[in-house]
């Protein structure tokens, strides 16, 4: 008889802890109780778009985490993950029939907010929803650090390198719009091989003629010849080493610190709206780490983990069985909300656990016994 595969309670709890950390990474950096509007254009925060209040064809709008809970309960929301330099729109002029419950005194519009197709629930160069019910291909979505759109790995024009979660990506369109960035690719970027996906032409990305290193942005006030002495960008241009200028570009950890920060380059980045590239704390990884640290400070030591040493094997197996039953039922419960695009509220969770408590205890003949 084959030996029954077992799993320890520690394994179960560690797996659950990983899932909680992923959620904390995005949500713990944002306040779930207070509208972020008084903070102005927040450096980075978790955002949502409400298709119930601002349907496709209307004006795009984004709401903060707290407003998604308190003002848009039961609405169809699109999760936008995080966006930079955004001010909560909830209840402003774009919401004709809704007033923000948390901070109603808002300006009519947030003129510095930037919007994209994401605010209507579509992503990538293929402009499809995520998850896409008509797409049977398993493919990860990767966010461009410049336009902050999410793109399918197969639509990037390059083979996605290993360890992509530790890197940042700039899509081909953003690279071409800021052609001076190509100068850095041969020296700073992760080597990538071009990829051709048959049967899926990427028709939404205009093919531009290859731009040389001498091409600068029209808004730049100084020419290459007038660049300051010691300009790293100019030094790299003079080396002349090039990489094929096509496809998305992946950048390794800490690549931003190696960009030139002379006055000329700062002006160029500012004119292109890319000053944030000189700020390493702007990265999603930095935001996630901050969220995890904040969550850990609030939680303190886990009393359940601390009590494990005091449980015998019978007690541990009993807890594992009950925990796995509860986790399966909770997953099914939450999937119903995900399928309907609804936000899970604290009241929904309370009702779930009330239903759990009202169920009968397991029958005695179903208990586990130690060998």
Automatic annotation (TrEMBL):
Enzyme Commission designation: 2.3.2.27
Entry keyword annotation includes Transferase: yes
GO MF term (any one): zinc ion binding
Protein name listed in UniProt: Putative E3 ubiquitin-protein ligase UBR7
Family matches, as PANTHER family: E3 UBIQUITIN-PROTEIN LIGASE UBR7
Region (Disordered) location: 200-226
Principal EC category: transferase
Biased composition (Basic and acidic residues): 206-226
InterPro entries xref list: UBR7, UBR7-like_UBR-box, Znf_FYVE_PHD, Znf_RING/FYVE/PHD, Znf_UBR
SMART domains in alphabetical order: ZnF_UBR1
Domain UBR-type residues, every copy: 33-105
SUPFAM superfamilies per UniProt: FYVE/PHD zinc finger
GO cellular component: cytoplasm
């Amino acid at each position: 008889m084959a030996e029954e595969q077992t799993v320890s309670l520690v394994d179960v709890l560690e797996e659950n802890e990983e899932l909680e950390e992923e959620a904390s990474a995005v949500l713990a950096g944002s306040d779930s109780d207070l509208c972020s509007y008084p903070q102005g254009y927040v450096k980075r925060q978790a955002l949502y778009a409400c298709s119930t209040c601002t349907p496709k064809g209307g004006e795009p709008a984004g709401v903060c985490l707290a407003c998604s809970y308190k003002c848009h309960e039961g609405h169809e929301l699109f999760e936008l993950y995080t966006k930079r330099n955004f001010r909560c729109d909830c209840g402003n002029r774009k919401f004709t029939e809704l007033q923000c419950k948390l901070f109603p005194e808002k300006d009519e519009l947030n003129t510095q907010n930037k919007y994209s197709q994401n605010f209507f629930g579509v992503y990538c160069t293929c402009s499809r929803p995520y998850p896409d019910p008509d797409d049977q291909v398993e493919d990860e979505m990767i966010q461009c650090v410049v336009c902050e759109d999410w793109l399918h790995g197969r639509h990037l024009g390059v083979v996605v390198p290993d360890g992509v979660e530790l890197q940042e990506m700039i899509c081909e369109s953003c690279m071409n719009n800021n052609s001076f960035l190509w100068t850095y690719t041969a020296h700073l970027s992760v080597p990538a091989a071009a990829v051709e996906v048959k049967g899926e032409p990427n028709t939404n990305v205009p093919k531009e003629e290859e731009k040389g290193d001498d091409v600068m942005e029209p808004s730049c006030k100084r020419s290459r010849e007038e660049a300051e002495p010691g300009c790293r960008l100019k030094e790299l241009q003079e080396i002349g080493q090039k990489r094929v200028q096509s496809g998305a570009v992946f950048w390794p950890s800490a690549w931003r610190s190696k960009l030139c920060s002379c006055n000329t380059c700062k002006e160029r980045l500012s004119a292109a709206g890319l000053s944030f590239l000189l700020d390493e704390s702007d990265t999603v990884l930095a935001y996630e780490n901050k969220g995890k640290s904040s969550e850990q400070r609030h939680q303190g030591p886990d009393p359940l983990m601390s009590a494990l040493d005091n449980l015998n094997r019978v007690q541990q197996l009993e807890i594992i069985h009950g925990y796995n039953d509860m986790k399966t039922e909770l997953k099914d419960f939450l999937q119903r909300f995900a399928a309907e695009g609804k936000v899970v509220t604290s009241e929904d969770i309370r009702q779930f656990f009330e239903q759990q408590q009202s169920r009968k205890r397991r029958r005695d003949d179903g208990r586990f016994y130690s060998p």
